Amino acid sequence: MFSGARLRQARSKTSEGTLSAEELAEKVGASKAQILAYENGRRVPDPPRIRQLADALGVHPLELADQSDMRTWQLADLRRANGLRASDLCRELELKPHSYRRLEMMGLAAEGRYGLSPRLAAALGVSMRALERHIANTPAVRQRLESIQGTLTALVETHLEPGRTDVPETEDRAVKEIAACYARSAPTIARVLHQETLTLREMRRRQATEAATAFYGPTTQEQRRARRRMESEEARINQLITSLPRRLDVFFRAQLAPGSWETLSQLHLARSRERALAMISPALIQDATLAPLIRPLSGKIIESGSGLYGISREGQHHYISFKHWYDALYPWVDDSLRHFEQRTTACDPPELAWLRQCFAQSQTVLFSFDGILCRLFADNVRSVSGHLAQAASGLHLHTDPNGTADPVALLRSAVDQGSPEQVRQLDGILTTYETAAARRAEPLPGAAQLLGALSRGPWRLAVVTDHATAAVQTFLTHLHPETGSAPQLGVFGRPTDPRLMKPHPHAISLATSRLGSDRSRTLLIGESLADALAARAAGVQFIGVATQRSHARMLREAGASNVVETLTTLLAAVSRIKDART
What we know:
Layout: H1 4-11, H2 21-28, H3 32-40, H4 47-57, H5 75-81, H6 86-93, H7 97-106, H8 116-124, H9 128-136, H10 139-159, H11 173-182, H12 186-216, H13 220-254, H14 258-270, H15 274-285, E1 294-301, E2 307-311, H16 313-329, H17 333-344, H18 350-361, E3 364-367, H19 381-394, H20 407-413, H21 420-440, H22 447-455, E4 460-464, H23 469-477, E5 490-492, H24 506-515, E6 522-526, H25 529-538, E7 541-545, H26 549-557, E8 563-564, H27 567-581
């Protein structure tokens, strides 16, 4: 692992310029011959000497190692490359020698030894995920997890059989065997597997629902989409079951004490709210196990003179990965978090507080399309209208050359002039323009994030629009991937009879009926006067989005009492309500 070539390279590039072998030897209390022997590969320095060399050269000890095969290192290799002896880490982690040897050789941490992997990762200068890769390379760890794979898989799959409602119990023989494998008590293993079983059982239920649609859905297209979701859910279930031994192993090394978990959860809830973060800071300063899971917020200083901290990427990953297990082990933390959320949101702006309540009480959220999720025709709307007017003229449909620049409105104006066949042909031409534009349309700021946040929550989602269904579906297929579940949106596009377009409530009524939604718990997010009027006619709640005061005034005059400037305001409200629920 130690690289003489990298030592020579570091010696030639110090902040003081090139350092001779003799000068380096003097700095570390060695001889010139020893330094040259290190560089030529005839001798390998012991860990303390590696650290002395790194300090003298102003580099991290890992920079003196050959990292070309670093992914194959075991934990012991990583420790030695850091210039550390086992006794050094025993002091750092406050472990007895036999406890550290068990961690290094077997990957086992005693129950009650909290936050070992975060502290160890910090001591070794690597991320927690990199540390876990090195631990996983240890043969004894691989053998231990392979030996328990069959028992764990059989136990979980047994409890997932149709009709089963029971969960793993402390007295089960398999639970005791698993507990011995991880050096944990049987009640701890039972509580964790209880929660995992419930999670997988809910996924099986969703899979069965999709299977019913896949075989008996009303249209071939819906059947295909349901089949894809069914297969995706099956893959996720299999992946979770297969990875369970490894995930348990990682969790028990990283497991935080109840107080540390509560603090990390508060950071997750606080997000970037300075008032909430300031309330958490005293607990952060006193908890060394959280160091790799938090990050300083630059330039944020509170009255006490200390800085503010937020949750780091690794902290967020730990929170998301293991929250359901912490809920099983520390159920009392939920009450504390609810109290924390109440205290920190007491000073929310009235608008945000109302929006949180609005989303919390809704079970279905409907979106308008053009002007909410994207600007479909952007700067070429007049060009499209012109081409559509020419097409209408070719179909012997009269349009006002000085009339509307809205292509959809132009189609509506032609309804009373032509036959259903003429209108259908004009509709097809407009659909072609819309679909082509949808391939290039970019989501408006906050649209992808809002759809993503809602799709990961309990809400049913759909788009109701006067634009073509094909255009909306085209847009959704290339929507930014952070939405995660855009294909799950229902799409209720332009009706066959254009007279049923908004402000007619047809699309909203169809959406609520198909989704099985209660209209009193349905919310429409739109930006046009037609959206507001359609929502009122259908008896659903409406939130208008208007960037200009004149536009907002027009919506309010139409009865829309709730108007916001941007979708990011709605995203903030959804994030708060989701945090409170989780």
